[in-house]
Amino acid sequence: MKTDPMQKKEPIHVNDSANGATEIPSSEISSSEVPASTPAFDPSRYGIVVLRESDHEDAREYWLLGTAHISRDSVVAVEETIRQVGIDHVVVEIDHQRYQSVTQKRDWSQLDIFQILRTGQAFLLLSNLVLASFQRRMGAGTGVTPGEEMIAAVKASSAEGIGSTFGDRPVTATLRRAWAKTGFWGRNKLLASMIAAAFSREKVSEEDLAKLREQNELESMLQELSDYLPQVKEVLIDERDRYLARSIYDAPGRRVLAVVGAGHVPGIARTLEQLRAGTVQVNKAELEEIPPPGAFRRALPYAVPAVVGSLILWGFFRGGLEGGLQSLGRWILVNGTLSAVGAAAALAHPLTILLAFAAAPITSMNPTVGVGLVTGLVEAFLRKPRVADFERLNDDIVSVRGFYRNRLTRILLVFLLSSVGSSIGTFIALPLLFG
Q: How far apart are CA 401 and CA 409, in angstroms?
């Protein structure tokens, strides 16, 4: 059993697993100065799962408080638990980057959309914005800012003189790993699901959130996600369960409170038991690494152009000049048209739409350049984001109209939809080249 490092007086810190410890204002405190758990406090009142390392009186305890991230009840549960229970340390399901984004208004004016497109970050930025849109819309229905219970946990622990830790994996690492493990169609399925959820008109109440915290409801939802996007579920849920469990296990103090989303509680509990028993090892650094693409994914961008080029050459060989030109024409018409349709669906500039038609058949044969890069850069050049677009970004992302009105998000839509159109065109054109 671990010794209790809180027996010794030391400054209280907010520990960020990715960025080191950040000191916050707090008095020095030892575990002996923390009031004992209030006898009247019932953990089951807030659905808290309490795990003990052994039956010994001084055994280490892990209190897992499952929350809904936009629930007022969750904020109250966090504050009351920290005030009423003799907690030695608090671990919150948030990383330093997200904590800053929640507590500080982001300055989007520093964003360079040209750099985002050139470095291949457009998919990630669009995913971030759609996720932010979903969270803001959900929060609007309950009057709670997404992640408010995490902020409440940090503030309440500081007020009580208790240390706290940002226990989640950096959000950029999570998104990059999800992107690396998900293919092109999987990425689009994920974005489509996020967009549908973000702009749904369905209202969310506290009663709905209470149902979502029930384990049978959660297990059903997680199983649906696993069936629909297994790689995404692995990265967003399973890996973070292990990462959070490691943060909780490594936290100082005898009684550790973990404030986490309700969907993470079962996985964290299992991993904590495995860590205690020594049957599993969790390396947080490995869970932050971006996996290299597999052999198939590395070969695919080269295989498709090779197949298309071979089929067009086969058309010349089999049907002479007329047959070859016919195959080439089919390729240009189908691929270019669908990419242009995608750009038009994003309400791109007319010149961008024309360039989508012209560029798609060429970029589809080049594994290093996608049509989305071309159309995105052209749209950004023709319709540069204005200062007002950056200032309104947080408000515009909560509606479809706002996404189209804001030049920054429309550039991302042009990038996405022209790319999707070209990809669909490629797979439609392939069988036609056999004709």
A: 11
